[in-house]
Amino acid sequence: MSPGDYGTKAVPSYIAAEAETTPLPKITVPPPAPATNSGKSLGDLPMRVVYRAVAVAAGVGILGASVAFAVLGRGTPAPAAVRAPAAQGVTQQAAVASGAAIGTATSAATGAVATPGLSPLPSASSLSASPQTSVSPEPSSGPVDTAMAAALHDPRVPTLPANERKLRRLHGHPAHIRGLVKDRRSGVALPRFTKSWTLAKASPFASRQVLPKVKGMSYRGLLVSCPVPIPQQETLRDTAFLAARWTLNHHPSGATITWTASQPMKAGKRKGWLLGYTVHYTVKGKKRTSAAALALVDVPDRKPAVVFVTIPDSQKKRWRDINAVMSSVKAL
Fold first, then answer.
1. Residue 195's pLDDT is what?
2. Which segments carry the region annotation Disordered (predicted)?
C-alpha cells in the first residue's frame, strides 16, 4: 500500500478536512418570455361577445330613429316622402353600426385598431320634402305685434286721429314751478311744481308728484315719469299709443279714452310724441272725467321715457298744469 492509499480503511478526519472541494455551480433563473399575441380570430370569440355587440348596434339604430321621429314630429307631421327615406336611412345606419361593432370586437381580440367609416344619422334639416308636399312655415308674431294687436282691439282705446292735432290750452292757471325734477333713470327732466303739488314716493315710477286728496274722492292728480313700460314699437307715435293705453291702469276701473291731441314734439334736442286725451269713468254711479296727457321722449342708448300727467275734474283748476308739463319736458 502506497502512502495516501488507505484502501477501504476509514479516512482520518484531519485528512478529510484538508482535502480540496469543488465549488457548487451557480443557478440562474431565465427572465420570463414576452407575451405573444394569442392570435385569436373572430371564430375564437365567445358568442355572447358577438351577440352583445350586435345588440348595442341595434340599440344605437333604434335611438337614432327615435331622435329623428321626435324632431320631425315637433311641428306638422312629416309627409310620407320624408318618412320613408328617413326610415330607410335609419335601417342602413343600424346595419352599418352592427357591422362596425363586430369589427371593433374582432379588432379588440386581435390587438388591432379599427376605424370604421360610419356616416352620421340624417338630421331633420337634411330631410327635404318633395315639391308636392312642401310645407310653408307659419309667420311668427313677436311681443311688438301682439301688444299692438291687443291695443287695436281694445274698445276702451280708439285709434289715433289720422291728422296731427295740437294740444289746446286747458282751463285754470298753472302752478308755480321751482326748478326741475331730473329723472336720470328715465333720462328726462320735468317741472317741479310748488304749493299744490308735492313729491311722493316714486315707486313703481322713477319720479312722482301728486295733488292733495279730495274729500270723498279716492282719485287725485298725478304726475309721473319712467322708462316706457310697454313693448317699444317701430315709431314713437305707435309706442305713445300703447303707453296711453297703459295709463288706464292708473284710472278708475272701466275708464275709456277720447283723444284731444296727437302731435310730434321736441324735448330739448330729442324727438318725441305728445298725446292729449280725456278719460271717462264712473265713480259712485256718477260720470266723471279727467284731463290727461302723455309725452314720449326718445332717449339715446335706452328705452324711450314717458312723462304722464292726469288731473280729475274735481281738481280742474289745475288742468292748466298739463300744458306747463308738456311744454317743459326735456331730455337730459
1. 85
2. 122-146
